[in-house]
Structure formats: structure tokens, C-alpha cells
Write a structure and sequence with these properties.
The chain is an alpha/beta fold. The longest helix is centred in the C-terminal third of the chain and has 18 residues.
Length: about 325
């Protein structure tokens, strides 16, 4: 690759970006971190609507349809956060279906980084839906004897457009991350402090137009990520708003797969984050199907929050992906 991928930075950069921008259909959120008291803490967050038709999220095609309208919306929000305290390094969170996140196992351990990339691209070739030569790929070796990698892939035309667009607004994109990965970064220390060593847990990210189910084993090894509620066919872009029954139809086989195919017996918790307040039975539904205690992701428990920041539960849920992105790999 001719330039260092932001997805690679997500895995490698130790310095938190400090400013997170989360884009989703019809809305954006910004989270700003402060290090005045040492450890990064959330000191300001904003959620604002986006103009219609300025974005069309897709894995295969450039997403930004109206750069002027989107740029004006972002600049307006940045003014509300005080110009981001002069921050120019920005982390970007995008809908899960813009990227392909998967765990890839290899028959043998690669001998170099370039060989790893080649082998992962070969394994992903049939499932991607586009030429792997047009892919930005990032990977992280997972614990264990068998070579297995948490792999993130985005189309060059998609991630490149965001980079160039935000550069014109004066921001360096130090990090591009799918929303569920950003949220799992927030969740990881919470799970480690609450659950027993070797425990498994599920995380369900319930967005307005799609949901993602992730399984983490032994507290730190992601082994399953499924993004659902998408159009049948190419899986590119969200379908109509899904119902509680739609969610249930997908959750039931996932729970069965964990118990029967993966022989799971150490499931201790189901965590979730929901932007669908209309799904009033969500917690009970998850608890019943997975047969494990269930609780929402609590942003205040997951990271430091400034004492003077007023943030109700709905706002915390809306900005949590931006906050996780702002923390970066320091989460």
C-alpha cells in the first residue's frame, strides 16, 4: 500500500486521537477527550442531524454525495465543541456494513507482514464482493496456537474519499473504525473487570437500521461478528427498519450456534448498546435467548467523564461510538 492505512493505525497507534466523529444515516456525533487530569476523559459531546441525501453508506461505492452540505454540518458541530480545542487529528467511526470485519484462520503462520496480507487477501477473495487489490486491509493476530487474525477490510475508494474530504476541512484522519469495533474497545475493560477469567460474552450493537452481534471468548478473543438487518443480495446498505421479530429471528440461531457448534459453556454476560428505544423488550429478549445476564453498555462506567458534562442515557448511547473512536487503541 502506498500510504499507511487508517485501519492499520486503529490497530497500531498508541496515542488516542482525542476527537471522534461518528457518522450514521441522518445524524452525526462528535466526542472530545481531555487529558487535563491525566487519563483521557470525555469532556464534551454533541449529536446533530445531517441533511437528507448527503451520505449513502456503502461498502463498494464512495459514500459522500453532497460534500458541501456534509462539510457545513461537520464544521457547525465543531464550532459547538470549541473548535475541538485546536485538535486536528480525528478518528472516524462508520456504520459496520461499510467495512468487512471477520476472523480469518490460516493453515500456517506467515513469515512476514507482506505474506500475512497476501494470505489474508487470498482467504477473503471470495467473500469480499470486490477485487482484493482495491482493498485496505488491517489485521491483528489473536491469541492461540492456530494462526488466526481479526481482519478489517474497506474499499480503497470509500476510505480514500473520507480521508480526502476531511483533509479539506483541516483534519488528519488518524483512525477509521467500524462502530461496533469502537464500542467493543469501550466495553473490553468493563468486561475484564466484571467477568471471571476465561469468560465469554456477546455484544449486540443495535443501530437504527441494522444490528451487529459479536462474540468475544476468553474475555479478549473475538471469534464471531455478524451484521444483520441488511438488504438481501449484496448486503450493501441498510434495509427498511427492522422489527423486534426480525431481531429475534437472527438472535435465535446465533444463540444455538454458540451452544451447539462452538460448544460454548462459559457465557457470562450479554452487553448491548441500543439506538432503538422502540424495542422496549430488547433486554428481556436477549436474556431469554442467550440464557445469560444482560446489561446495557454504560459509557460512564467504560471511560472517564468530566464532572461538569451533562449527559443523559440517550445522549450517551448516541455518542458512545464517537467516544470509543476518540480513545483509539488506548481504550
Amino acid at each position: 500500500m502506498s500510504r499507511r492505512s487508517p485501519l492499520i493505525r486503529w490497530l497500531l497507534d498508541p496515542e488516542p486521537p482525542g476527537l471522534g466523529l461518528d457518522l450514521r444515516t441522518g445524524e452525526l456525533s462528535v466526542a472530545r477527550l481531555s487529558t487535563k487530569r491525566g487519563k483521557p476523559e470525555l469532556d464534551l459531546c454533541v449529536t446533530a442531524p445531517l441533511p437528507p441525501n448527503c451520505l449513502a453508506f456503502s461498502m463498494l461505492e464512495p459514500n459522500i454525495l453532497d460534500p458541501k452540505a456534509l462539510g457545513q454540518s461537520i464544521e457547525k458541530v465543531m464550532l459547538r465543541v470549541g473548535g475541538a480545542n485546536g485538535a486536528k487529528r480525528l478518528a472516524l467511526s462508520l456504520p459496520d456494513y461499510v467495512a468487512r470485519i471477520s476472523v480469518v484462520k490460516l493453515a500456517e503462520a506467515p513469515r512476514s507482514t507482506s505474506e500475512t496480507i497476501d494470505m489474508l487477501k487470498f482467504r477473503l477473495k471470495k467473500s469480499l464482493g470486490f477485487d482484493t487489490e482495491k482493498a485496505r486491509i488491517a489485521f491483528e493476530r489473536l491469541p492461540g496456537i492456530t494462526p488466526a487474525y481479526l481482519t478489517g477490510v474497506m474499499h480503497e475508494s470509500v476510505v480514500g474519499q473520507y480521508e480526502d474530504f476531511l483533509a479539506e476541512l483541516g483534519f488528519e484522519v488518524g483512525l477509521v473504525i467500524p462502530a461496533s469495533v469502537s464500542l467493543r474497545q469501550l466495553l473490553a475493560p468493563v468486561a475484564s473487570s466484571k467477568l471471571a477469567p476465561g469468560a465469554d460474552y456477546f455484544f449486540v450493537n443495535v443501530e437504527r437500521e441494522y444490528f451487529t452481534v459479536s462474540l468475544v471468548r476468553d474475555l479478549e478473543v473475538p471469534v464471531l461478528t455478524r451484521t444483520l438487518g441488511l438488504r438481501s443480495g449484496d448486503g450493501d446498505g441498510p434495509a427498511a427498519i427492522y422489527s423486534e421479530d426480525d431481531l429475534l429471528r437472527e438472535i435465535i440461531p446465533t444463540a444455538i450456534y454458540y451452544r451447539e457448534n462452538l460448544k460454548g459453556s462459559s457465557l457470562e454476560r450479554i452487553y448491548y448498546r441500543s439506538l432503538r428505544p422502540d424495542l422496549i423488550h430488547l433486554r428481556e429478549l436477549l436474556e431469554e435467548q442467550f440464557e445469560a445476564p444482560t446489561e446495557p453498555l454504560n459509557l460512564r462506567s467504560a471511560m472517564g467523564v468530566a464532572e461538569n458534562l451533562k449527559m443523559d442515557a440517550a445522549l450517551a448511547d448516541s455518542v458512545s461510538a464517537a467516544a470509543g473512536a476518540a480513545l483509539g487503541s488506548a481504550a
